User: Fold these one by one.
Assistant:
Number 1:
Amino acid sequence: MGRLGRGGMGEVLLADRIVDAGVRLRCALKLVHPGRRRDPVYVGQILSEARIIAQLRHPNIVSILDVGRVGEQVWLAMEWIDGCDGRTLRRAARERGAAIPLRHVIYIVREALQGLHHAHQARGMDGRPLGIVHRDLSPGNILISRHGAVKLADFGVAAAAADGPARLRLVGKPQYIAPELYQGAPASVQSDIFALGATTWELLTMEPLFPRRLSFDELVERVSRFDPREAIEADLTLPDGIEPILLRALHPDPGQRYRSALEMLEDVSDFAYETGLRLLDAHFARYLQRLLAPPGHPTEA
């Protein structure tokens, strides 16, 4: 029915899944690239994503509907989110010459943290911690529905504790990778928190923490000497009171970051309360309706 996205592993299509009695369910269908259908690495990634998402049931995480194989093609049917992602949201706001309102940024971050905490704390059917780390958090992997729902997506490179050495492989979008991962450290809860901190920065300032124009070597060098305090002091657009949260989430030393997504969530919630921000999905949905409408397209008053 149409392509929703394309990446290194494959593509995501908008599709209808026909169930009993001819009932159609709209879904997002993830497929492996045709040239990589026999590659065990890519097939393994999509199956790993299916196994991980199947164990995560939370309103802030995209749900899995089904997984299967037709010939050589492995497919994954997931919940379809009618809306946009965080990257598209930022771009739409910039095109209209405005920043995303603070209350809506904090709402997105709060919802994302709730989903992330659930993933980090998830347990298997045997009751044991799964040890899931997302490893690819970025604005583009935070999906936002027109009704104001916020959901984490793309667990294609996520790792569980059982994956062992896989957690040492450097994956993810370079601008959101924590400094210690470039030094060979394994992915962790704290590296996910850094990535979400970088995402928070981008939604607040409308600019990425590290410029995309940098080459990989330049980026690694910039990250290796990154000081969040200097970055915060140099940016005059950040709202008062948000600095302590960013300083801790983006600390170069993972041991000085938040110990959990829940701990960061508590600080974000306190910030919203102390600054009088009303974090309501209805308000966010109304903002999205205006922002995502084509120019000249009427919206409800």
Note: The radius of gyration is 19 Å.
Number 2:
Amino acid sequence: MKTISKYIFYVIFSSFFLLSVCLGQSAHVKHEKEIVAWLKSNSFPVKHLTAGKGFADLQPLKTILQEVQVVGLGESTHGTREMFQLKHRLLEFLALEMGFTAIALEASYAACQPINEYVLYHFPGLCPKQILII
């Protein structure tokens, strides 16, 4: 009797597994096509990663962000140079072109303290690049 119960369990488990894989795939493909279509119609190329290259390629963001008060900049990896370069450029665009005045960073209190002191007291002879060296 125990062997039959195990057999029934494996048949039911396998059936549910196969159904979920087969049905899940078709639903996934349907949504994938919708997502790809949305990305094609709503994306635009970014020509430069580094700051100081102007903002001509970022102008579509003005329309997208016109009613926005908070912008979150995530990252696909932690610590990659290109991600920080792009964030620097986007922060520069948000501040200079769109008038954003507050920036919150994901960092420890100790890591942010030199930045806070620079903003509050602007010590003579202290360059922002010296503060942000990691």
Note: Helices lie at 2-42, 60-64, 81-96, 109-121, 128-131.
